[in-house]
Amino acid sequence: MRCSLYIHIPFCFSKCRYCDFFSVAGHDDLIDEYLEAVAGEWKLYERNTPIELTTVYIGGGTPSFLSIAQWERFGKMLLKQLPCVSGAEWTVECNPESFSAEKASALAAVGVNRLTLGIQTLDDRELRLIGRPHTSRQAMEVLDNPALLRFNSIGIDVMYGLPGQTIGSLNRTLHALLDRPIVKHLSAYELTIAEHTPFGRHRSILPLPEEDAVSAMTGALHAAASDHGFKQYEVSNFSRDGFRCRHNSGYWDHVPYIGLGCAAHSYLHPRRFWNIGDIIRYCSMVKSGAFPVEREESIDAAALAREMAFLGFRRNDGLNEEAFREKTGMDFRRWAGEDRLQRFIDDNLVVYQRPLWRATARGMFAADYLARELF
Amino acid sequence: MERDFIRNFCIIAHIDHGKSTLADRFLEITGTISKEKMQAQVLDDMDLERERGITIKSHPIRMQYTAQDGKAYEFNLIDTPGHVDFSYEVSRSLAACEGAILVVDASQGIEAQTLTNIFLALDNNLAIIPVLNKVDLPSAHPEEVRRQVADLLGIDPATILSCSAKTGAGVAPILERVLVDIPPPGGDASAPLKALIFDSKFDSFRGAVAYVRIFEGTMRRGDAINFFSTGINYDVDEIGFFRMGRFPLDTLQAGEVGYMIANIRTVSDIKIGDTVTTRLGGTQEAVAGYREVKPMVFSGIYPIDKADYEDLRSALEKLQLNDSSISYLPETSSALGFGFRAGFLGLLHMEIVQERLYREFNVDIITTIPNVKYHIRMKNGDELYIESPAKMPSQQEVEFISEPVTKLQIITPAEYVGAIMKLCEEKRGKMGTMEYLETTRVCLHYRIPLAEIIIDFFDRLKSCSRGYASMDYEFDGYERENLVKLDILINGTPVDAFSSIVHRDNTYHFGQEITSKLKELIPRQQFEVAIQAAIGNKVIARSTVKAFRKDVTSKCYGGDITRKRKLLEKQKEGKRRMKQVGNIEIPQEAFLAVLSRD
Ligand SMILES: Nc1nc2c(ncn2[C@@H]2O[C@H](COP(=O)(O)OP(=O)(O)OP(=O)(O)O)[C@@H](O)[C@H]2O)c(=O)[nH]1
Ligand code: SF4
Ligand SMILES: [Mg+2]
Hints:
Strand content of chain B: 25-35%
Number of helices of chain A: 16
Strand order of the largest sheet of chain B: 11-10-16-7-8-15-12-13
Helix content of chain A: 40-55%
Mean pLDDT of chain A: 95
Shape of chain B: globular
Oligomer: heterodimer
Number of strands of chain A: 17
Low-confidence stretches of chain A: none
Structural class of chain B: alpha+beta
Number of helices of chain B: 14
Radius of gyration of chain B: 27 Å
Distance between the termini of chain B: 57 Å
Largest interface: A-B, 38 and 23 residues
Bound molecules: guanosine-5'-triphosphate, iron/sulfur cluster, magnesium ion
């Protein structure tokens, strides 16, 4: 079976105030046992079917939070044995506070060829407000580090709509980062506030930028990206030519993927399932030889059609009506309704170039609206 | 059964004084229901009744009672609702009875509906057996309440029974009292048939099930019958009595209470209050019918999905059979399409009808702001009544508007009089008399526009008296007032469903309130939405729902896809329940929220 692999590392130096991911801080004692469990979980899959990996993505949490020794051990236990096809893309997420040239070498040694850097902003006040543990200086030092040259692609993560952020500060962040030729990929996320986070609880006192300002920031983002030769290929993702993230694109193309680790999701058509979000229980389940799955659902044609629709409108590649027919057995136009599609076209939200239905720049901002209309 | 061995009675009281619980004990004592099947307020068998803990419909049931004299009697009991909106149910049940047990909560004392129900029973010439209930409560003060009740009925306090319907203490003697104090029914089983339809229910298999009280003659299975008011003929398929279900019999005789099924599918053929007789040799005179119930509150009812219009019509038809107090006429709204304008007895009644349509008949509806029936005098001398603000002629042609006014009575502990007077004043009430029922309990009388009490008056009254005050009102004619029509415009188009008629002094405040409420409730659309409140051409309040800047979430990776799809599906479901007005989507909550002024 050809598929992608995601490995979740749920450990961080400290917890960011907006963070809605499954990750913990201050439980470093669990890391070794956890890595063993992840390796054990992989064995459960490998036992069943021969696997070929086209992409690997190690995300978190903060994968770079693992020590060099831990990476080396993890490499021996699992990473070096992963059955990657030649030319496979292999990404690891790194944060500036835990990056070092030695760690980068350790990663490169196991086969990692792409890094993303969680820089978020270069304004120290903004960094403090959102509770990131690094400084802008640390971030710039990482970008200057010659160790990065060992990787095929470097991506950066940026956030906007942050408390205290202005258009000016966002522009400074973007230009300083995108100016670097080594940076090939940009993921830019608007801050979303989840209820059960510190931000969610204190929403009313956060100095959040006004809606108009956020919308101007979005404009600034698009301008900065194109000024520096980055093309948007998804709502939040931009890259220089040839540097799209293949792993993430796979999610949007419904390629099969295995997710290892706590709370990780897997999709092996028609099953989509996800692991339990409790490190201790996860470890003990794997130890006992059981798949640590919390729940699963079956993606039938109707669900698949909906997913293809909402994912399609988020992407420059759009929705391919031939792929739609092949995967769901349904005719896209009939499924969506000709008159509705025509209305989208008339409203300048969607364009059609056989066989692609693509959201316009405006339509991409309304991707959820388009999807709701079609569901 | 010999008439002498029959007793027909109902239980009446203010809401929550324990009628249904007392009925439970009666059913237990008489062995009508087994211990295993028993549950609290067992007669409240509708889901809505159980959830809300209140009785909505009258529930008849037959019991076999073996008295102290060793003989077996047939007791036909009807449990009635206590809420003011349902007093018509009570009055209909009373017509099928010779007596009533008046329950008074010994911890609360006499309340507004206690009085109303006493008068209803007296009007119907019923024997009244007052009973003090809940004497087990530490807060009960039975001696004081006993004096109040004795005073009110002009009887000897020593004759008043007391009980705890909850524990069962003191309940058995009540049944003995029923035997002695309530006369057996009159009538002659061999006379021509004369029966009253006092209620009905729709059964999807059997058609209408009429609840009947036989006054004269005998009704037999197979009888060819005739309805007095409509002249329509049917053949009786089945007759019988109620005992946690229907029990068929061959005959029902003068004095008895039971049901009749005649394969009646056309709902309009059967009228509550109508007299049933036989086609051949029937009676010439009808039972004195009911005073027709007059709906007090009107509102538009529209299917959320246009395709459900016919379903809604048939659901209303069937519901009307269960609840003859609902009236409705087709109506068209530019905003909501085809629907009905329906009349209700009060807000609770309206809420219940809405719930029942949804639950029992599976139709999703939107209801518009409730309003009263206005009387309009035109400049050209014409007069008309309107039940919908949308039908109001333009302000220039109107000479004046009158609105229905009620006599309101409020019974409250004296300490809340100040707060209640303030509330009534705010609601344009004019104070009448005030009397002390005892040193700490006061009865206040007001004349107050009905429109002011149908919205949130009851809730406000409860909250300013910590739940202690009770109220009752009755219609008391029309009065000229300075009223105007307030329109709500969405992007320049008046949405008739949001129109209301308000007192001129309140327009500004009310307009502000509605526009800001709607602003919160109308979701962002792909374009800006302006909400205006206007009197004629004059805009008096305005708010704006900004256009969507962005309607897409930032992140969507492997772990987000399922969650995201489910969220969109849920939102879509929410959208399905929205009403398309022009090109704007308005959620049902917006229509509902406008109802609750505060
Ligand atoms: N302590 C105590 N509680 C009682 C007694 N009788 C009834 N209750 C409680 O009072 C509440 C109302 O009882 P119901 O029997 O539903 O009253 P109701 O008069 O039928 O109410 P409506 O039909 O809504 O008018 C319930 O919570 C009963 O449990 C009693 O004798 N003692
Ligand atoms: S580094 Fe990432 S995963 Fe860790 S706490 Fe911050 S936002 Fe969450
Ligand atoms: Mg009851």
